[in-house]
Each structure stands twice: as C-alpha cells, then as structure tokens.
Amino acid sequence: MLTLLHTSPVHVPVFDALRDTEHPGLALRHVVDESLLTRARAEGPESVAQDIAAALAPAVAEGTTAVLCTCSTIGEVAEKTSAVLGVPVLRVDRPMAAAAAAAGRVVVVAALESTLEPTAALIRQEAAGRPVDLRMVLVEGAWERFEAGDRDAYLDMVAAAVDGVTGADVVVLAQASMADAADRTTCAIPVFSSPRPGLNAAAAAAAAI
Fold first, then answer.
1. pLDDT at residue 53 greater than cutoff 80
2. How many other C-beta atoms lie within 10 A of the C-beta of residue 156?
3. 123-135 pLDDT, tens per residue?
4. pLDDT at 25 over 80
5. CB within 8 A of 167, min separation 6: which ones?
6. Distance (Å, rounded) from C-alpha 87 to C-alpha 190?
7. Does the pLDDT of residue 3 top 90, yes or no?
8. Which of 9, 18, 66, 117 supports an S-S bond with 206, CB 3.0-4.6 Å?
9. Which of 77, 84, 75 lies closest to 112, judged by CA?
10. pTM of this prediction?
11. How far is CA 197 from CA 21, 56, 134, 153, in A?
12. How far apart are the first and last CA of the chain?
C-alpha cells in the first residue's frame, strides 16, 4: 500500500485519478493535515518534523510500504522521517527536479514563497554540481485564490505567469496543485509538473518492498 501525505484535500481526487489511469489496482491511502503547511510557513519546515512522523505512523503500522509527500514546502523534512518510520518516504517533486536539473536554464514558478527555496535547493541537489541557471517567479495573489476555493482563477494566474517566462529551457511548477495550469499555457517552453512522475516513483518504491 502507498500512503500519500497531503496538506490540502484538493490533492486526493487528483492522485486517485492518476492512480486509476497510470497504476490501476494500486492501493492508496490518503492522510490530509492542513495544519502542517500552516505551521511550516509560520515556524519553518523543521518545526513539523515530529508531527509528520506521528501523522504517518498509523498508516505504516497498518501495512504502508512507501509514502509520498505531495507538499513541496515540507517535502525535505518528510523525506527525513523515512529513518524513523522504516519505509521509503518520497517527495513528489524530486523526479520533476531531476528532469529540470538536466535542462540548464530553469524558471521555478510558485504561488507560495515558502515553496521557492525548497524547490530551488532540490534542483541544485539533483544537478549534482552541474551548473544550473535558476530563476524564481512568485505568482502574487494566486495562493489567496487557491485558499478561497477559486481553482480556475488560481490556475489561470499560474498559467499567465508561465506564459510570461522568457529565456528558459524549462518551467517548473513548484506545487502539485499547479499541475493543471500546464494545459492552460500557450508558451513553447516545456512545463514540468510533479504529480505524475512523483506518483510513478512512489508506486515503484511501494512495489519494491
């Protein structure tokens, strides 16, 4: 069984749909805790390390063989709980970051400022010393639309920000919630999102145990 840790319930149907098309038959369990992101933004991601482990422990006790954290802000901290939980804990954006690191000129687009540096750090890590030209774009006001439940406005604002990018080899959508914005863009630059490659990696990890 694969458990997904979310900081918003909007991710549940997204990953269920991906499972149905990409990995039919894969048993998914969803753990949703919005307070993790709230506290991580206010106090820093390390402040929720113990809470992440506590939230996931029951799922592991009931047979989870791998965990996928779908929140980019707390992804690095979540990965570290693997040693405590005894199962692989993956961050959804690592496969996307690995692909972006090979591109050269990367623009990271995020709606949350707390997501920018963790995503940039992950891309640099995946580059393994190779030079990467990284730029950051914060979509001002978009997260407020997301929190208000106005998904269309949120995605339109993200897509508009992507369409304004120039001089890049790839655009990275730093948050899983942004993925559908890629279908609303008109730019010719490849746009990378995290849900599909992240779930693929996690499904493989769950099956390997």
1. yes
2. 15
3. 999 999 888 999 9
4. yes
5. 105
6. 33
7. yes
8. 66
9. 75
10. 0.92
11. 13, 22, 21, 25
12. 10
